[in-house]
Amino acid sequence: MKELFIIKIGGNVIDVMDKLSVFLKKFSVINSPKILIHGGGKLATDLSTKLGIEAKLVDGKRITDAATLQIITMVYSGINKSIVAKLQALGANSIGICGADLNMIPAKKRAVGAIDYGFVGDVLMEKIPVTHWTDLLEKNICPVVAPITADSSGQLLNTNADTIASSVAQALSKTYKVTLIYCFEKNGVLQNPDDEQSVIPLIQPEIYSTFKSQGVISKGMIPKLDNSFEAMKNGVSKVIIGNALQIDKLITSKEGTHLSLA
Amino acid sequence: MKELFIIKIGGNVIDVMDKLSVFLKKFSVINSPKILIHGGGKLATDLSTKLGIEAKLVDGKRITDAATLQIITMVYSGINKSIVAKLQALGANSIGICGADLNMIPAKKRAVGAIDYGFVGDVLMEKIPVTHWTDLLEKNICPVVAPITADSSGQLLNTNADTIASSVAQALSKTYKVTLIYCFEKNGVLQNPDDEQSVIPLIQPEIYSTFKSQGVISKGMIPKLDNSFEAMKNGVSKVIIGNALQIDKLITSKEGTHLSLA
Fold it and tell me: Which CATH number applies to A3-259?
């Protein structure tokens, strides 16, 4: 099977133009089929603040109300087009999409339970139209994905970019040997959050359980890792977590944190 | 040759959700290859005002500075994704693009002459990659186009939506029998701007010259008409100007203003 890299970029790498440029330059020369999924960094929060729209929190969970959805849609879609323009200039033919385009990431609005999350979407992984993705990849086109989806009624929905990355990775794992990479400003999963040199090079399920019970792994990292192990159980070959500015090394060597089932 | 409808929607139809929904419903059932190009209506201006970014004018011409470009990119791209989500829900498979995506509308920054327009793009019509457009259209996919382009250095550029429509129409006129439709909130080109019933049903070059010299045609309409006659000289079959809410009738009957070379 052909190798496919699905790379999710997040954290402050998105906000700082110089850093984003370094990443995109290295990303553009990856000589395999590739998909880029990005977040919105601090830009959506900044714009909301400027417009006087306060973040809505219920029980510590962020709620996407209509005003926030509108901001997020604009900011993420705008970043999406900036990234595509830069990739084109670097010679990497790319197309900027969200989940609504060609319905490439079908989703549904999260059901209201103890919390009403508002306009938040959950990916319907089994409905991802694999051929739309392969059609682009086989033409050497790189999809650049903004984390917005829509439900079948045409309602746009704020959707977690990590989840999009792992859902698309799983859906495409029957067609490609998929490497899923989560990259951001840290060098990997750290044993000590204050020490960038404390990268844990390899995490297997057993060690992961131990780390979790010992509280070694930071809370923010746990959904990402749970997600990743789940993705590997469903066919994704490799998951790597590391520094976006070293994307070239994450792919070719043992930089960052590598996850393994065995 | 197969018929292709290239429809540019502008004016306040974009701003008012009810009107946009009526338009999209009628647009979605057009049973021929079709392309939708939209503007940003008042939304970009509204957001700029809220953020305290003043419109920059030089000699009465609007200038796109960096802050304005950022607003425009976000607003137009956001509208673009909303339209795509609604079309999907209506069963019209669509993909939202700007000129940078697959480099589908190559452009260059307008040269600084008497006025520096800032980040404004002029379409490089002869470089439009026709096969990227036909690939989508032949798969029954409707491209939905936001009026943003990029130059070869990856700089995003604000670009006139009317010009994009007529450039794409000309580029595709060797492959399709192209009908170019400009629609907005008016019923057509009006003989008396205050009388919606004064639609001029047919405009030919000679009458157009007479109307222009008599000042019958409003100044805002002249670039659109100049552009349209130019497009017809370059192979576009028909140009129709009329009310977006009657898009069904513009296509099938003699509503609106029809332009003709002879």
Answer: 3.40.1160.10
**Residues in chain B closer than 8 A to A155 (CB atoms):** 85
CB contact under 8 A, A93 and B84: no
pTM for the structure as a whole = 0.96
Residues of A in contact with B107 (CB under 8 A): none
**Residue B157 near residue B107 (C-beta atoms within 8 A):** yes
Task: ipTM value, please give it.
Answer: 0.95
Give contacts of A49 with chain B, Cβ < 8 Å. Answer: none
**A positions 59-118 inside 8 Å of B (CB):** 70, 73-75, 77-78, 80-82, 84-90, 93-98, 100-103
Q: Which CATH architecture best describes the domain B3-185+243-249?
A: 3-Layer(aba) Sandwich (3.40)
A61 forms beta bridges with A58
Summarised one tens digit per residue, pLDDT across range B243-258 is 999 999 999 877 999 9
* A26/chain B closest Cα distance in angstroms: 16
pLDDT score, position A253: 77
Structure tokens at B136: 């989508």
Q: What is the pLDDT of residues A70-91, one digit of tens each?
A: 999 999 999 999 999 999 999 9
Q: Span A18-31, mean pLDDT? A: 96
